[in-house]
Amino acid sequence: MKEAVAWLLAISFLVTPPVVHAQWTGNSSVIGRAYPGKLPAGGERRELTFEATVRRVWSWGDGGRFLTISPRIRLDPGNHGRSQLDGSDLLLELIWANTELAVGVATLNWSLAESVPLVDVVNQQDFGEDRPSPERLGQPMIHTRRFWTGGAVELLLLPLFRKRQFEGRGGALWSLMRVEKEFTRPAEPRSTLIDDWALRLTQTVGTIDLGLAYLDGTNRQPTYSHEVPVGQTSGVLVPMYNQMRQASVDAQWTLDAWIIKVEGLRRVTDSETFHALVAGVEYAFANYLSVFFEYAYDERGAQATTSFENDAFVGARLLTQEWTVTGRTFIDTRSANVIASATVSRRLGSFAAIDFKGRVFSGHAEDEPGFANRRDGYGALQLRYFF
User: How far is residue 94's CA from residue 22's CA, in Å, rounded to a whole number?
Assistant: First the structure.
């Protein structure tokens, strides 16, 4: 990552005249969490986390060239496994006519779903953050896009595969067996410098937005093997990243206050082939209240590496000038297990906000991935400052 930063800065100075426009934005926050669930050895868990994101965009050449730098830092004094410095965007963009070329580190969002971002497979997930909706890690890429009326085609070359970020020992989200990322089994090596590539086509037809995508490369979602490290008596889970080929489709149909969403994929890996689907509706009351209902299906059932293989999702979001209230609930239709979360946010003037967050897990059986998180319900208070 450091080498990528140095090369990008060097290229930017070689190809740029004096900067015409530059703008700083960012935010910082302090988050305190308390977990009512007891640890197996007894005792309570509490966290105090400091986070900050800074973003600066330079533009020049009649607005056709941009350099974006957006580092993000997270400090957790009680769990160094969660502390990290990462760049969600470190990107040089060149735009001319109806073509765009971007080189660097970026995050892309292809998913339309509120529940499970099924077709978001470019960026790795940061499980040091909040589940079931973790942050995404920046992905090194060469990204070119060609536009036309109502649509675009884009090609992505994705070097430098990134492993999933876990919390480390003593983390807020823990399992019966620790995930030992230091013993990660790498994906089968390839013979080319660019390991992964993706192609995406989008088109708007009337009030319908369509997307088709294909990715050939390393699966961002690991499988796990149970191993006992040398010199230790307890087992750990070792992540393994297989090669995959995935074709996906996403569609969104807007009908006045209704929005209908569908995402589906077919994934072929070294060990399995399966289909998955997310479908649902959203309804907006005026401009401030939206409600959602979605269903997530994975044909692997109980063998899936995700908790959302046969789940219903209901949620709501209330937006005013000063308040944002969000509620989200996943219900396993097979076992009636529940994951529920809520966030209440209050603006404090133009430069600050306070958030109250909570999450509960209920009823997970031992044979389900979510069983490992049964003690991870929490309450949290977050103070944010914007600049």
Answer: 16
